[in-house]
């Protein structure tokens, strides 16, 4: 029986195999790059907010401590977004007629919460706890970056698992000496 | 209508369709891997509540009611929504235990099928219109005559006082009470023996010998939480071990607890008690050998012996048991009688009969039914439904639009206990406050407010009503005592005083039931039907039979043979001319010629969950023979598929339950370990490192009575979905704990709770291609949902069969009312993911974080798993096995400690304390059956 394929078909076959392999590798590479790029992680992308709250002004300018507003950071899993009441402790006196703060005053008067756009959002299967990190000497800026230089807030880090693990596996750089972080799955996932 | 738990399964019809779907699946799966997180918004408070730390649960003491009697609870609330019920350890009537009904109360609160609107003739109406149309007619009937109020058993001191006041000002008002699970025979018995209605309270911790006749004190009795704990405390260890005899028609959790269990028809139990009385010299008569042995034991125990006769026995039999207890000198030690905890200990059957009579005579013009469902659960011969239709104005208040609601002119949604201010009394009389955990979800009406409204005092809120009741008692001390009582959940030292009266001699009538007897049982999951709308309870395998989503006519193998039926055959049961169909379930342990059918099933109305589930025993139930009756049974040519989980996840035949008598244990304390001694301990795995905390758990098989509280507690804590009958039939139930029941002969039943064993050499871990199940340094076998691709290799390789797979999207992701019910600390799993016990990792991590913040190690007892916390019998210990001083280490050091399937050398972290029994050597094995 005559051969079905000419010898040149071998070249075609080899090239195809190589191209498919390379294509898959490239595809995975691109997917990986996209997944860890700001396009997906929103790292370094400032988010618009209904009220143009500036951390830069309040922290660098007025020297407020983080805990003045984020009161639960030492006790709870969530650091807490301040209630309108906290804003109004000052803004009932200063800038109390500023147009930018109209929504804040409305919220206070009408008892309707402000709606902030969430900047730091972990997936729902991650159970992060602020209090233990603070208690073990991890500074706020270790994760949140240079907040005092951020007019509008952005994520300074990817908040992806790989980034978490860098520190959980080498705590010495950012945490107290007695910190014993775990890289066990159940440390964060339940 | 679609059942809320049902999942549509599209069967792929041919290869082409299958390939299309698979292709799409692969495509979407790769897309899914590149998701961008959806953008979320944050709504902070306007004014933050001072005491609340977001994400930190708060606990509030309150009280739930079962058939009117309080069950003390501590409710966990996450950011304002209650998510979990725990026991109230400080409460004298709880000691920290819970039961399945308490655990499932959370679902009832968020049940999407709850009644949410005022209905007039079944159509939505308004509260305003109710006020205009109904209230004047009620007031008129109240001022004149013909006004009736029907409630369940009332223990609430406030409600009782309100009703009392109303009756004083309006003497013609009729207040009727009806509970399907009533205590009529109990009150008739105390009436006969002591001349007045009394409650009976036992102390099993002080008892050396307990003889229970047709009684289920550890599960069904109002004091079950305390009784289970007391009974277990005296049987955990070999020292001071008690002896329990149980004589019963159908196996109960208490029966599984016994050293000697005898099967007897309910009609014949009276003869056993009579013989016991004779053997103790209280009367003349013959005695069989087994009873003589019991009598000798009781005599030797004296005041530390006690006889318990259940409220399902005729009054004279119970009265005789009281006399036996008095004769033994048990009063004050193991037995006492107290003022009844219900405000008005009337005969419920007579009440209902009187109500029907008054309606037939045209005397009842208006009726208010508060939270009960008599159209469904009234005895069949009273034909309550027909009578009810004749009342000119019928108003029903209930949590569901049930059978009674459908026949009422008006239906008002009721408030759930977790939305209400009220009070209850527990079985010992302790006054327990009920406080709301959240605002009523659907408005809803409170019995307190409605009574005030009828009395012409509109606008009074239940908080004020309840508080005023206590203000009258406490006066100036109100504020401090109120706060104390709210915090503790009960008012200290309000137990009812003992009532001591010499018992009268009551003759026991001989009761010969020829032929077959039909017994009515309180259902192990849906109770008297009041819990039939709860899917957690419907899917919960009932104790011993492990039936889910149905009840069945239970018969012994021999009786089934006589009737020519087997499991799943439908029989027609005829009682006094009334016929009911029921599927047969053959159960060893059931008395011969006795057929047991539980109440509360066969609901025709109500939620999507309860309708059409099981068989309606009520339709056969006579009013004068509420608990057993002669019956004719005929096999009809029909088959019904019952679903039992008994044969799912089988491990049988491998020496799983280890048991020895006390005597055998004394001569060989290594009995539990002996079968494993010759097993070579070779392993290819490296030793698990023992650094830091090492979690482990033990189950004391002596304490467990198979009550299921742990199963529902786990379901509530870990967001475990309900799958529905069809899926359970496929072996796909999702419960992380199962309680295996093993029969030994026809008499003895062993319970064995089985959860993930957290093997150190876990067979599941090595076969996972996705590394989705891994081992933690502290010895937990972890399941990482996000890595799981659903190969199910792990489950195949698990020798204990404790892994559960989400074959379909079982979890309800759409119903908004179920969202606040879920534990926010546990992931809600989706389709295609394996899951299993995590040792309540969320609780472990919470305790660890607290400890680390305080620069210390986790203290022993600081972590309580959901199953451990729920167990009324303290059967479960959990803790750090690396700490030799921990409770769990001590339990594991016990000679009786053993692990399941030791021969596989999987090194489970869950172990069992082998069962000990204390049989009476005088009772020959042959007598046992």
What's the short story on this structure?
Chain A is mainly alpha-helical and 190 residues long.
Topology (SSEs and partners):
The complex is a heterodimer of chains A (190) and B (929).
Chain A lengths: L7 H28 L2 H4 L13 H7 L4 H4 L14 H8 L10 H9 L5 E2 L12 H6 L4 H5 L16 H9 L21
Chain B lengths: L14 H18 L8 E2 L15 E9 L2 E10 L2 E7 L12 H11 L8 E2 L2 E2 L2 H7 L1 H9 L3 E5 L5 H13 L4 E4 L6 H11 L4 E4 L6 E5 L10 H10 L9 E6 L4 H4 L3 E4 L2 H14 L9 H13 L3 E5 L5 H14 L6 E4 L9 H13 L5 E5 L3 H4 L6 H5 L4 E6 L4 H4 L3 E4 L8 E4 L5 E4 L12 H8 L7 H13 L3 H11 L28 E5 L13 H5 L7 E2 L4 E3 L1 H7 L5 E7 L2 E9 L7 E5 L29 E3 L1 E8 L3 E2 L14 E3 H6 L27 E6 L8 H9 L7 H5 L8 E7 L3 E7 L8 H4 L6 E3 L5 E3 L9 H5 L6 E2 L28 E2 L5 H13 L12 H5 L5 E5 L6 H7 L3 E2 L11 E4 L1 E3 L12
Parallel strand pairs in B: 7-8, 7-15, 10-11, 10-13, 11-12, 15-16, 16-17, 20-25, 22-24, 29-40, 30-39
Antiparallel strand pairs in B: 2-3, 3-4, 5-6, 5-17, 9-14, 18-19, 20-26, 21-28, 23-24, 23-27, 30-37, 31-32, 33-34, 35-36, 38-39
Helix pairs in contact in B: 2-22, 5-16, 5-17, 6-11, 9-10, 9-11
Task: Tell me what you see in this structure.
Helices cover 42% and strands 1% of the residues of chain A. Chain A contains nine helices and one strand; from the N terminus they run ααααααβααα. Chain B has 929 residues and is α/β, with parallel strands linked by helices. In chain B, 27% of the residues lie in helices and 20% in strands. Chain B is built from 28 helices and 40 strands. In chain B, a hairpin with a 2-residue loop joins strand 23 (569-575) and strand 24 (578-586). Chain A binds chain B through residues 31, 34-35, 39-40, 72, 75-78, 80-85, 107-108, 111-118, 121, 123-125, 127, 129, 131-132, 135-136, 178, 180, 182, 184-187, 189-190, and chain B through 33-34, 36-37, 39-48, 53-56, 774, 776-778, 780, 782, 784-786, 825-827, 838, 841-842, 844-845, 849, 852-853, 855.
